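Local shape tokens

___
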Amino acid sequence: MKVALVHYWLVGMRGGERVLEVLCDLYPDADIFTLVIDRSKISAKILKHRIFTSMLQRLGGRQHYKKMLPLMPFALEAFDLTPYDLVISSESGPAKGVVTGPDSVHICYCHSPMRYVWDLYPQYRKNAPFLTRSMMALTAPLIRQWDVTTAARVDHFIANSRYVAKRIKKYYRRESTVINPPVDLQRFSITAQRAEFYLSAGQITPYKRIELAVEAFTRLRLPLVVIGTGSSTPLRRIAGPNVTFLGAVSDPVLADYFSKCKALVFPGVEDFGIVPLEVMASGRPVIAYGAGGVLETVIPGETGLLFREQTVESLIDAVKEMELRIGDFNPNAMRDFASRFDRAHFAERLASFIELRISDAIQRLG
């Protein structure tokens, strides 16, 4: 088979790119198509492949791709994928909208329908500058229409969680198979040395609700370390001296903080949530808001605690409970739980799904 992998953009190594790495292992000769790429921030495994970028790359998209959403449908549809027998799109930003050949099999691994034009649209628009808000009001309805239409171009959907499967059903009216994304267990280990700080880690963006953690720990006067890219200025204004902001750190440094923290604080609603599993793989529990993808991984009393209301007061109650119960969480048991999501299991399930769908397609074609 001739295989094409389509990924929305390659500007860093996060959960979506880890899935792409597994696809690269499964299909070492596949070509990769992406809207834009920053090669300095992408793993060697991905860079081994022949990579095609869109016209947005030449328009400065590497730095400004987030502002180019209205152009992305045109850029995706300009790719010529007709020679490929199998097309696997990796969707979080737009990717599934490519045009494939009539006899090809198109499988979409959906990390999430585009949250900034669907469920999180009001939040993103509220936090955008005036001119951007005006543009969003004009373009978002057209993007939604295109997004729904292009769902019909996909032969089979894979959702990264049951939560995402519900949203695929809601927005696209399509069924999907759930295959949770992988955790690279080799990157994380258990250490006997546990520090007294709690940890918040991930991109600093409004929907992650990191301000809840900052305010809660400021009130509690317990140490909190915040790691992640994005503007932390609004958070620093409400933070007490017990809250430390480290910004972006290297993968080894991040893994070290995972292994030494008292617990991860995870107050947002995520599609799945790889970071909680990575912390569990490091032998540490998670305090998470009880909604979204974490309901599939945070088991109260075993791998962490859930708080039921997305408020500072509810989070404070959960932290106080963790202070009392921290000794009840078994590091080895948490790592064993995380191992159910390791790369080998993910690759096996993904390969089996794809092979079955290809076999079905061959039978239909006779």
About this structure: The chain has a mean pLDDT of 94.
